[in-house]
UniProtKB/TrEMBL annotation:
It comes from Pseudomonas fluorescens. The lineage of its organism: Bacteria, Pseudomonadati, Pseudomonadota, Gammaproteobacteria, Pseudomonadales. Keywords: Oxidoreductase. This is Aldehyde dehydrogenase. Gene3D superfamilies: Aldehyde Dehydrogenase, Chain A, domain 1, Aldehyde Dehydrogenase, Chain A, domain 2. Residues 30-492 form the Aldehyde dehydrogenase domain. Pfam families: Aldedh. InterPro entries: Ald_DH/histidinol_DH (IPR016161), Ald_DH_C (IPR016163), Ald_DH_CS_CYS (IPR016160), Ald_DH_CS_GLU (IPR029510), Ald_DH_N (IPR016162), Aldehyde_DH_dom (IPR015590).
Length: 497
């Protein structure tokens, strides 16, 4: 555990040298156009630096280098045991540079420094090392054949992977994709969000330092409608992986059809139900989890428990516990290690969250906690964690992903009604169930149309469990051995003996 204070972090922030250039073929480089955009910290509105604004010309350079490197076999045909060792070194370098990476993450997207240092960076490093450790333990298959035939089922790296990652967990989401994509031998072009590109740019050099050949990992900062679109339409990108909004996910599917039918794997939005039955084993624990499920990471979480479904018979007892628990989640300066709620990522996102809060008022929901912008004098973008009671599932705040700390409380009278309400959104990313009845837990979990269901907890799981959604929350899975399916081609070889 670090002993750094807020003053220490602020001094480090003043001394920090920020790299804003793209990374192509093992070198930092300006965008071909020379264009840049400003990187503004949501902590206090300061200018962090100018970032290369890549476009189609940069995408072409990166794809050409990635393809040439892939075809050379320097990484793609390297023995799995050697790729494993390199990926573990890569993970070790993230740990070695943990404080620098955490500071970049916090300044860039506003999350608390303690979260960046103790959750995001270790989680990113683990994603790299876990995938690397697995790669020499994944076996191919021999088909059941007649005695004079031999059928082989083998996996090969898909080739050039475009990875477009979101701004809310910039480093960890990148590494969820880089881990299996690199471990299987692909070349990767990483497009971080323009809202939080700094850690992606930094780790590109660490990959080469770890021993990953130049050209295997390229990083292109820039906007989705420029460089992101160029990668999605490029005929020499074999696979596109994406985490972000459902709206953009749908557009990427169109781009695939308009180009080379590249495989597109999407992890999109969520409106996750957190269902608390009257027989929940520990209402206090459920209340604290409900507060954390909406306030953690400022509510900028695709699995945020943004709909709290409470059995009517306990609502009057349970809701005050949630309101009280939420008081422990207070926005503050993200460079203070004691802060557990930081700033929203930028002014645009803050205004979006505030507009949803206004919508809740307009539609007749009852505000029972929070609901305001605060700490305006800092120049940062801070919004109080907010609870609306009396929400109908048809309301805008219950149907649309807010991506901010706004909780909708909805009551139900039976398990069947809870399941109906829970499933009544376009999304299906995650859900939670609180009950002491093991049969009810299993039956409800089976009925929920969600990729992850947690029982008597919120946000359980680790690298061994797949992560992804049903319905318009996307397809494919990050984490676990299932993630490797996205980055490999399956080949059948049938041999006459």
């Amino acid at each position: 555990m670090t002993t750094l204070t807020r003053a220490d972090w602020e001094q480090r922030a003043r001394d920090l040298k920020i790299e804003g250039r793209a990374y192509i073929n093992g070198e930092y480089t300006d965008a071909v156009s020379g264009e840049t955009f400003e990187c503004i910290s949501p902590v206090d509105g300061r200018l962090l630096g100018k970032i290369a604004s890549c476009d189609a010309a940069d995408a072409q350079r990166a794809v050409d280098n990635a393809r040439a490197t892939f075809n050379s076999g320097a990484w793609s045909r390297l023995a799995p045991t050697k790729r494993k060792a390199t990926m573990i070194r890569f993970a070790g370098l993230l740990k070695q540079h943990a404080e620098e990476l955490a500071l970049l993450e916090t300044l860039d997207m506003g999350k608390p420094i303690s979260d960046s240092l103790y959750i995001d960076v270790p989680g990113a490093a683990q994603a790299l090392s876990w995938s690397g450790e697995a790669i020499d333990k994944i076996y191919d298959e021999v088909a059941a054949t007649p005695h004079d035939q031999l059928g082989l089922v083998t996996r090969e790296p898909v080739g050039v992977v475009g990875a477009i990652v979101p701004w809310n967990f910039p480093l960890m989401m990148a590494c969820w994709k880089l881990g299996p994509a690199l471990s299987t031998g692909n070349s990767v072009i990483l497009k971080p969000s323009e809202k939080s590109p700094l850690t992606a740019i930094r780790i590109a050099a660490l990959a080469v330092e770890a021993g990953i050949p130049k050209g295997v990992l390229n990083v292109l900062p820039g906007y989705g409608h420029t460089v992101g679109k160029a990668l999605a339409l490029h005929n020499d990108v074999d696979t596109l992986v994406f985490t972000g909004s459902t709206k953009i996910a749908k557009q990427l599917l169109i781009y695939s059809g308009e180009s080379n039918m590249k495989r597109v794997w999407l992890e999109a939005g969520g409106k996750s139900p957190n269902i608390v039955f009257a027989d929940a084993p520990d209402l206090q624990a459920a209340a604290e989890a409900a507060a954390g499920a909406i306030a953690f990471n400022q509510g900028e979480v695709c699995t945020a428990g943004s709909r709290l479904l409470v059995e009517r018979s306990i609502k009057d007892k349970f809701l005050p516990l949630v309101i009280e628990a939420l008081k422990t989640w207070k926005p503050g300066n993200p460079l203070d290690p004691a802060t557990n709620v930081g700033a929203l990522v930028d002014t645009q996102q803050m205004n979006t969250v505030l507009s949803y809060i206004e919508s809740g008022h307009t539609d007749g929901a009852k505000l029972v906690a929070g609901g305001k912008r605060i700490l305006q004098e800092t120049g940062g973008t801070y919004v109080e964690p907010t609870i609306f009671d009396g929400v109908s599932n048809a309301m805008k705040i219950a149907q649309e992903e807010i991506f901010g700390p706004v909780l909708s409380v909805i009551t139900f009278d039976s398990a069947e009604e809870a399941i109906q309400i829970a499933n009544d959104t376009p999304y299906g990313l995650a859900a939670a169930v609180w009950t002491a009845d093991i049969s009810k837990a299993h039956l409800t979990a089976k009925a929920l149309r969600a990729g992850s269901v947690w029982v008597n907890q919120y946000d359980g799981g680790d690298m061994t469990a797949p992560f992804g959604g049903f319905k318009q929350s996307g397809n494919g899975r990050d984490k676990s051995l299932h993630a490797f399916d996205k980055y490999t081609e399956l080949k059948a070889t049938w041999i006459k003996l």
